[in-house]
Amino acid sequence: MPNPHKQDSATIPDAVNPRGYRVPADNPYIHATMHNAMPVNAATLRTETWACGLRNPWRFCFDPKTGQMMIGDVGQDKWEEVDIGKAGGNYGWSYYEGTHEGPRFKDIPPQGGDELIPPIYEYSHNEGSVFNGVSIIGGLVYRGTRLPELNGAYIFGDFGTRHIWSLQQMGTKWVPSLLNTFGGVSSFGVDPANGDVLAVDWVETSGGWCAWISPQRRRPRCSRRPGLSRIRPPCKPRPAWWRMSRSSKDGTAPR
User: Fold this and answer.
1) pLDDT tens-digit profile of 7-36?
2) How many angstroms separate the Cα of 242 from the Cα of each of 10, 22, 125, 179, 212?
3) Closest to 51 (Cα-Cα) out of 76, 80, 85
4) Which phi and psi angles does 158 have, rounded to 5°?
5) 156: exposed, middle or buried (C-beta count within 10 Å: 0-12, 13-18, 19+)?
6) Is residue 246 part of a domain?
7) In total, how many domains does the chain have?
8) Backbone phi, psi, residue 148, to 5°
9) Is residue 130 part of a domain?
10) Cα 248 from Cα 255, distance rounded (Å)
11) Residues linked to residue 176 through DSSP beta bridges, in sequence order
12) What is the pLDDT of residues 69-106, one digit of tens each?
């Protein structure tokens, strides 16, 4: 078993069961002796660790086409972020919050420490924009059949502001677009029949429900071209270019 330290089998039985809990042999922290330019004891290092410097990932997913991991990482005071997962990656918390100074910024290790990976996208807690929020809800990469405009886009949302966005790579930049403002989105899923995006609403007063993201029947007045377009003032963020449809009583998607 790659994990070099011993476990108390009475406390964690699966940790010493060769048919149970195991650490993959290619995990990046196995046999590590240095971290952030500081020595670590390989005999006590938790080799289950796959990446570090994330504050509170909620949640991560894999692109079903490329296998790339996408992570929504909840910030603390000012910034939410989206990251691309990398084995052994250090994403900088709590030296940084997003690309900005974090609570331990002054403690950044000297030259020779880990390379800190910045987010591909971040948004602030400030009000006044449809691209701000307070608690990111990581989503999924769309590879469905009904919405070609969103092919390869990362769909995610914010629990506090209720916005749902897409994030698409355009050259070296990742560009967000507002899809809708909806309920109290807490998670996302996929309809296995066609890859439709399912958004889970967690609102105590409504009992919670699921919704499907589907195209509007007509283009909103503030959009100058069909397809995906960013909502800009004086356009209102709702209904945007995509509508949210509640699931029917039998749990199937509305068509």
Assistant:
1) 554 555 544 555 666 778 888 988 888 888
2) 53, 44, 24, 6, 10
3) 85
4) -135, 130
5) buried
6) yes
7) 1
8) -60, -25
9) yes
10) 10
11) 167
12) 999 999 999 999 999 999 999 999 999 999 999 999 99
